[in-house]
Amino acid sequence: MPTISDVARITGLSKSTVSRVINNHPYISSQKREKVLKAMEEIGYYPNPSARRLRGHTSNTIGVIVPRIVNPFFSYLVNSIEQEAFKNNYQVIIFQSNDLKDKELYFLNLLKNRQVDGIIMTSIENDWETIEPYMQYGPVLLCNEYVNQSSVSKVRLDQKKGAYMGTEHLINKGHQKIAYCTGGLFAGYGRDFDRNTGYQKAMDKHQLTPNPNWIFIQRHSIEDGKKVVKEILSMNDKPTAIFSGSDEVAAGIIIEAKENGLKIPDDLAVIGFDDQPLAEIVDPKLTTIKQPIDEMGIKSVELLIQMMNSKDSMVEEVQLPIQLIEREST
């Protein structure tokens, strides 16, 4: 394994100079800094995070990976994370993956390079086998995202229960032809998969078989919701209700449905997920599954700081409550 001595030998600089570069010492010339960083990259040398923590060399910076900051759910979540981090003398850097695997890995490399002390991942694009090796460089915590792995700390909700509650709510309202919108695929793992499973479980319990044409995958925005309605209107066999894994998508569905003369909920009942402020602005007001966003952000920061300050590796899972908020759209 490469050491600081190897970097010093390759660059022709002293170990103390290399150390000052690694620790962002202000009185180092740009030429020496560039020389050291280039050598570190070439031989794959990265400072030992545990040793640096023991010496007090931390950046007091938390990285937060979100898929899209324009999604209000993630905006509110980041707001909660940033405020709690600031109270604890940490700054926050926001990384937007745009659902791209390469961008996610680029941001994880900042943990490897010790530019952040820990990372909160609110979504996952790569397979866990690809992400897990980065945990040797510093704490990684999953927030609002879930993988069935015992090696990683999580702050999560019972997504399966939330989707089950929402779907059964529509069934109890008399609906049998229930469409479903998901932000991911209908198979795989993680938050979206758990919601898919909850939807399917409720349908199975009541011996209902969803039409494959009523399953809409990778829908994230208001515009996506509008497109869903346009697709439904072209069908011969139309659903009477839609469960959406996003308040944004649900809002788009309501807007487009009304523009096409449909009455909500008489012609089409709609339920969302998150309970964003948008849910009370849209007309009619949106029935949704409430996620405690503020508490999620606070707990994530509290747990990550514990992990960063612990000399030993620690893994903990926190599960927060979830509830159905019934409004006018169902």
Automatic annotation (TrEMBL):
InterPro entries: HTH_LacI, Lambda_DNA-bd_dom_sf, Peripla_BP/Lac1_sug-bd_dom, Peripla_BP_I. Keywords: DNA-binding, Transcription, Transcription regulation. Signal peptide: none annotated. Residues 2-56 form the HTH lacI-type domain. This is Transcriptional regulator, LacI family. CDD domains: HTH_LacI (cd01392), PBP1_CcpB-like (cd06286). It holds the Pfam family LacI. It comes from the Bacteria. Gene3D superfamilies: 3.40.50.2300, lambda repressor-like DNA-binding domains. One of its GO terms (molecular function) is transcription cis-regulatory region binding.
